[in-house]
Structure formats: C-alpha cells, structure tokens
Amino acid sequence: MLKRIGADYEGLGKIFGLDPLVIRILVNRGYDTEEKIRLFLSADETIFDCADGLPDIGSAVSALERFRKEGKKIRIIGDYDIDGVCATAILLKALKAYGMEADYVIPHRILDGYGLNANLIEKAHNDGIEAIVTCDNGIAAFDEIALAKEYGMEVIVTDHHEIPERLPDALAIVDPKRKENTYPNPDICGAYVAYKVVSALLGLNRPDSDFEELKKELLILAGFATVGDIMPLYAENRALVSYCLAHIKEGTNTGLEALIRATETMDKKVSAYTIGFILGPCINATGRLDSADHALQLLMCDDKNRAMKLAQMLREMNEERKDITAKGQEDAVAMVKRQGTPDPVIVLYLPDVHESIAGIIAGRLKEVFYRPSIVFTDTEGEIIKGSGRSIEAYDMYEKLSECRDLFEKFGGHPMAAGISMPKENLEELRRRLNENANLSEEDLTPTLIIDADMPFGYASMHLMEELAKLEPFGVKNEKPVFARKDVLITEAKLFGRNKDMAVFTVKEPSLGDRTYKLKLFRHLIEFHEYLDEIHGEGTAEALYRGKPASVKVAFYPEINDFRGEKNIEFIVTDFG
C-alpha cells in the first residue's frame, strides 16, 4: 500500500535543504512539522549521561560507592546475547576503572538458561562473593535474589525487561520499564541501562572527567547493543547508535576492531545493518553454539593478536550457526508446506534442531507464512523448549497466558515468547491456540507500506547523500521502501556460496532503454515461486536462460563502491 499523508513537502524541503521525497519519508514516520523534523535531524549527545528519572539510579550508585569503600567482592551476572555481553563488558570495565574488585559470570544458554538461577547464587556464595550486580536480567529473579540475601549477599539489578507482578527484594532495581520511571525513554537496552549507572558512578558527564576514552568505548558498546537487541531507533537511541557508528572503527575497543577486520568490513561503511546482520550475529553465535564467554573475552581483550584469533573464531562459529540455521529453516518450511494449508498458529516440533536457533526458525516461518509460529525442540528428559515469533494482529504473550496450565515456565511479550513444557502437552497446546486464535484472513495477509513509487532513474548520488541523513535505520525508523511495477528483467544470474543471491539487469520500458542492477539476497525460493505463479510454470528457470520476465518490486537504493568506482544499485526488499 502506498502511504499518502498530506504535507507541505516542497516548503519543508526548502527550509531544511532536502529533497521533497526525503521530507515525505519523514512525514510518513510521523515527523510532520518543522520542530519535529529539526529534532529528528539533530543528535543531542548531552543526553547520554543524563539519568534523571531512572528508578533507583541514586541507590545503585550509593551502594556501589559503599561496596568500594568496604572492599566487597562483586560478581556481575549478565546474559548470553549481544545486549547481555555488552552490558557485562560495560560494568566490568567501569567498575575496574573505579578501583573495585569485580568478576563476572554469563549463564550458559543450555546448562543455566536465562538470567539468575539458584546454581549461580550457590556458586557465588561458594566463591566468597559479597555482592551481585545483574545486567540485562534480574527483574523477575524474585526467589534467586531472596536466596542471595539469605547467604548475606547484596544485589543490585540493572535490567530493561517488562516488570513482573512482584519485584525482587534488591538494594536497587534500575529498570526504565518500572511504573515509577520518569526517564523520557523507556525503550533503552540493558547495556545502555548499565552505562547510565556507571556514568553516574564515574561522573562521565563532567568536562574534567578522567575517563574520556573509557566513556567513548562504553558508549560504542551501548550503541552496538542497541542495534543488536533491536531497540527502536528514535530520539536518544538514534543519537547513541549514530555516535557508535561514527567511532566504532577508531580502534577504541580492540576486540570490536578485530571483529570488523575478521568480517572484512573495515574498508566498508559500518551501518546499523553491519552491526545487525554481520558483526552482532558473531557475538550472538557464541552464546548459541557454545559459551558467550568467548564474546566477552573479545570485548575485554587489549592484545591485538589474541583479539584477532578470538574474532576469527567468532566468525567461524557464526558461519557454522548460519549453516545449521539454513538447514533447520529449510526443513521447517518444507514440513509446514507438506501439511497443506498452515494452521492460523503454526506449532512445530523439531526434535533434532538445536534449541538455540528455534527462535530464528520461528521467525523464518512467520516471514514465509505470515502466521504466529512456535518451534519446539528437545531437551533432556520429557521437557521440550519452544520459542515463538508473532505478527502484529496476534498478542502471543496474552494467548499463551491462556494456556499457562500446560507450561513449566514461559515468558515473553506480544511479539515473542519462550516456553518450557512436557512433551505430552504439545498437541493440546496446538489445539487450544488454534481454536482461540481469532485471526481473520485480513489479519493473516501481510501489508507492505510503500513510501513512494520512485523510478530507478530518480536515485542520484545527491539523493543518496540526503537519504543517509535519515540513518541509522531500524525499528521505528525503518529504512524507506520504494516500489515500481512493470519492471522488466532482461538478465538474471545467481551468485554466492549456496547460490542464494540473484543479480538482475532491469529496465523500465516506459522510461527508455537505460538499464539498472537489482540484487536479491533473501527469499529466492519464494521469488521463483512468485514468478511461476504470475507468469506460468517454468518462468523462473527460463529467466536464468535469458528469457525476460516482468515483475513488481519493492527496493532501496544503495551505493556500490567497487575499486573506487561508485554506482547506485537497488536492493530488492519484496515483490508481488
């Protein structure tokens, strides 16, 4: 659907020196006045060290100051994803710079599960730990924190997840989702919450601070986690990520520099996409296939040679993870197709799939079939674990709550969830979820919002410079979507290790004979099915033998810099 919102595109364009098309995109995102546009385009870095209104921020800082005076042994307990790893690194670097004795534990995804558990508390007690600081977890650890108190340990919680019915009895609970919060942005990641705490502790807002280089490094880590944890990129988050992208290649963090080199992105522009789809997955892969300790060691490493070895290992693990995921996704999609018309809610049991990629596969099923999808995998014994991903019309957390009696544990939010339950309850869960789905055909039909019907020839280098001012793109600041119909593909070639990328030579017959390059990186199978459906069986195969085909495509222009020669090419984001 083409989005049409009335506004003075020409007038606002003259005020800001921007193409009316760029103004239209801003208006489509809700920035429809001069004041809103000016605020969007400015990046106020003074907000980074503001924590006014964050619940218990003062209590957390006071407790940490006391811990240092008393010489307490502190343990940081994080999480095994990119946000938890970056948050742990931020706390560890800052507390050591403050002269405190601190170590860390990142739970093992398979052995420990998410967040605090009784075993981690027991181990901390046996190791003589006197205080625990959590990051990216802890808000729901009521029983575990009570156990820590029984052992005489004091606990500070820093988290950003939704607030449960009862809060744990901790010294301080810094979480922007608490109802007491008056901080203007509740949508910050766990690593940025950790940054806010240590910024207040170290006085990073002071112009005479002794920690300028450390501050830059910690902000880069917080921005890196903001992208990796898929936080909305508006206001402060957008400014933070912009800061991260501007400084990430400066070598402030030896480990990140090594990872950029290992993934061969040092000579390319590092964007939010680079973090989200190239660098970030390398950090996450360690927690999926082995231990996230490897990722934390990389971020804490100051030795360039060792950092490079760690970075190469992380890259190799991510390649392995991608291969495993691709196979799992392929099997899952084929299984659903064999079942005929998919249920309104897809519930799939894949006993041989590694539980760490169940959520990725569920996300893929949601993309292909546009239905809420839950993928279960085996664990030891008769308990199976599931990970779900949802669509806008279906509140997964609410619907799963109606089946709470079937689960051992579950948690999540409207768009995603995690479940543990006896295997024998699987069919009952599938039955209940589908009987109570209340999803219409309209709900199960994906809608793509188009910003503009833009001819390929309109994309100039000048326009590309102006579009870059809207970056970084992400949640709530989505990359603009352009579209064209009656696009004629005159040549098609497959590339990539698995032939999973297509490059098309296209032209718009109504606008002359000039040709353009389109690239399709994902959904090739669906694209081929789409061609056969609209033009007849065998069209996709014939396309690669030189027979032209007409398509409708959604796309985004990008600059391809090859050996110093810059050209605009178009990345296909959808079709149909």
Describe the structure.
- With 576 residues, the protein is of the alpha/beta class.
- 41% of the residues lie in helices and 18% in strands.
- The strands form three sheets. Strands 2-1-3-4-5 form a five-stranded parallel beta sheet, with helices on both faces. A five-stranded mixed beta sheet has the order 6-7-8-10-9. A five-stranded mixed β-barrel has the order 12-13-14-16-15.
- Helix 7 links the parallel strand 3 and strand 4.
- The mean pLDDT is 93.
Concise synopsis of the structure shown:
The protein has 576 residues and is an alpha/beta fold. It has 20 helices and 16 strands. β15 (549-562) and β16 (565-575) form a beta hairpin.
Question: Layout of helices and strands, plus pairs?
Answer:
Blueprint: H1 9-16, H2 20-28, H3 34-41, H4 57-70, E1 73-77, H5 82-97, E2 101-105, H6 118-126, E3 131-135, H7 142-150, E4 154-158, E5 172-174, H8 190-202, H9 212-228, H10 235-247, H11 254-262, H12 272-289, H13 293-300, H14 304-338, E6 346-349, H15 358-369, E7 373-378, E8 383-389, H16 396-401, E9 409-413, E10 416-422, H17 426-435, E11 452-453, H18 461-468, E12 482-495, E13 501-507, E14 515-520, H19 524-535, H20 539-543, E15 549-562, E16 565-575
Parallel strand pairs: 1-2, 1-3, 3-4, 4-5, 6-7, 11-12, 14-16
Antiparallel strand pairs: 7-8, 8-10, 9-10, 12-13, 12-15, 13-14, 15-16
Helix pairs in contact: 1-2, 4-8, 5-8, 5-9, 5-13, 6-7, 8-9, 9-10, 9-12, 11-14, 12-13, 12-14, 13-14, 14-15
